[in-house]
Write a structure and sequence with these properties.
Layout (H helix, E strand, L loop, with lengths): L2 E3 L5 H7 L4 E3 H4 L7 E6 L5 H12 L6 E6 L11 H7 E2 L1 H4 L4 E6 L15 H14 E7 L1 H11 L4 E15 L13 E11 L2 H5 L4 E7 L3 E7 L4 E4 L9 H11 L25 H17 L11
Parallel strand pairs: 1-2, 1-4, 3-4, 3-6, 4-5, 6-7, 7-12
Antiparallel strand pairs: 8-9, 8-10, 10-11, 11-12
Helix pairs in contact: 1-3
Length: 305
C-alpha cells in the first residue's frame, strides 16, 4: 500500500523516481479505507531532505498512511523557504484539537545546548504533553529522543568527549520484542551526536525498557512499558551520503572533525561510503508502524486516550 502525501510536496517526485508507491491526495479520496494518521514534527534545518528520508522509510508497508508535517512557530527556520513551510507545514494550534495514530519527533542540531536554552523548548514541551492523550504511539529520534526522555522521565543527557559520528554495531536487549521482528542478532545504525543518555539512568526508571545498545554508541533504543513512546538515539533513516555531507560541512566550518567511523571504504573519506544499515532501518520503521501503531490504535481516533 502507498503513503499518502500532499500532491505538490517536493518529496513526491523524488520518491516516485525511486519506484516508491506514493498516493496523492486526489487518488486517496477515491479509496474507502481509513488510513493511519501520522504527524511528523520536523525539527531538522534541512527539512526537505529529512522529509524524503522519513517518507522513504514509512512508504514500504502494506498500510495506507496519511502524513502531515508540523513545525514550531517559536523558532525561525532559516534553511527552508517560507513558501515551503506555509504550503506543507501546520502549526500546533491547528492540530491541538485533533488526534493521531502515530507521531515522529525528529532530531535537531541543538544537543550541545541545555534543553532550557533551546528557543522552542516551551513549545516542544507543550507538544510532548499533548501527545500523551492525543497520539497513540510517538517515535522520538536522536535529540528528539533525548528531549522526550528528559521531559517525560527526567533522564539526563551527558556531553561526549568528542562527536560520535559513524555507523556502529548494535545488539538487542529484548530480542523477542516485536520492535525487532526480522532483525539479525547484530545490526548497524548511523549515529551523529555530541551527547548521550546512559544505561543506568534508563534502568532506574520503572516505566522504561532498554531495548538495544551498542558497545561503541551506547544506548540506542528505549521504549515506555505501555508502548506509547519509543526513543532511538541514532539515525536509521539516513541516506548513504548523509554522514559524508555532515563531515564535509564540519570540515568547511574549520571544526576539524574525526572521520566517521566504520563508514567510508577502508575508513578513507576519499572513497565512497558503505551502506550497511538500510535493511534494518526499513524493518525498524515497518515494525513500529505495524506493531505499535496499526495493530493497537483504536479504529476511532476519538478513542485514543
Amino acid at each position: 500500500m502507498p503513503i499518502k502525501i500532499p500532491d505538490q510536496l517536493p518529496a513526491t517526485s523524488a520518491l516516485i523516481n525511486e519506484n516508491i508507491f506514493v498516493m496523492t491526495e486526489h487518488r486517496a479520496l477515491h479509496q474507502d479505507i481509513r488510513p493511519l494518521k501520522l504527524l511528523i514534527l520536523n525539527l531538522m534545518p534541512t527539512k526537505i531532505v529529512t522529509e524524503i528520508q522519513l517518507l522513504r522509510k514509512l512508504s514500504n508497508t502494506p498500510l495506507q498512511i496519511e502524513v502531515e508535517f508540523l513545525r514550531t512557530l517559536s523558532h525561525d527556520a532559516k534553511n527552508t523557504d517560507a513558501e515551503h513551510l506555509e504550503a506543507f507545514y501546520t502549526s500546533f494550534e491547528s492540530v491541538r484539537d485533533r488526534r493521531f495514530d502515530g507521531m515522529i519527533i525528529t532530531g535537531a542540531p541543538v544537543e550541545q545546548l541545555d534543553f532550557f536554552d533551546v528557543d522552542y523548548w516551551p513549545e516542544l514541551c507543550e507538544i510532548m504533553d499533548w501527545t500523551r492523550e492525543n497520539v497513540h504511539s510517538t517515535l522520538h529520534i536522536c535529540w528528539g529522543a533525548q528531549a522526550g526522555l528528559f521531559h517525560h522521565y527526567g533522564v539526563k543527557k551527558y556531553d561526549l568527549p568528542k562527536k560520535l559520528s559513524g555507523v556502529y554495531l548494535h545488539t538487542m536487549e529484548k530480542p523477542l520484542s516485536p520492535f525487532f521482528r526480522g532483525f539479525n542478532d547484530e545490526f548497524f545504525v548511523p549515529h551523529s551526536r555530541y551527547t548521550e543518555v546512559r544505561r543506568e539512568d534508563i534502568e532506574a526508571v520503572p516505566e522504561l525498557e532498554l531495548m538495544s545498545t551498542s558497545k561503541q554508541a551506547g544506548v540506542f533504543a528505549v521504549k515506555s512499558v505501555d508502548n506509547r513512546r519509543i526513543f532511538i538515539t541514532g539515525h536509521p533513516e539516513y541516506d548513504a551520503d548523509t554522514l559524508a555531507l555532515e563531515y564535509k560541512r564540519d570540515l568547511d566550518k574549520g571544526i576539524n572533525p574525526s572521520v566517521p567511523e566504520n563508514y567510508f571504504i577502508d575508513d578513507d573519506p576519499s572513497k565512497p561510503p558503505r551502506v550497511t544499515w538500510r535493511s534494518h532501518a526499513q524493518l525498524l520503521y515497518n515494525n513500529w508502524l505495524n506493531y505499535y501503531v496499526y495493530q493497537t490504535t483504536p479504529y476511532q481516533l476519538t478513542d485514543i486516550q
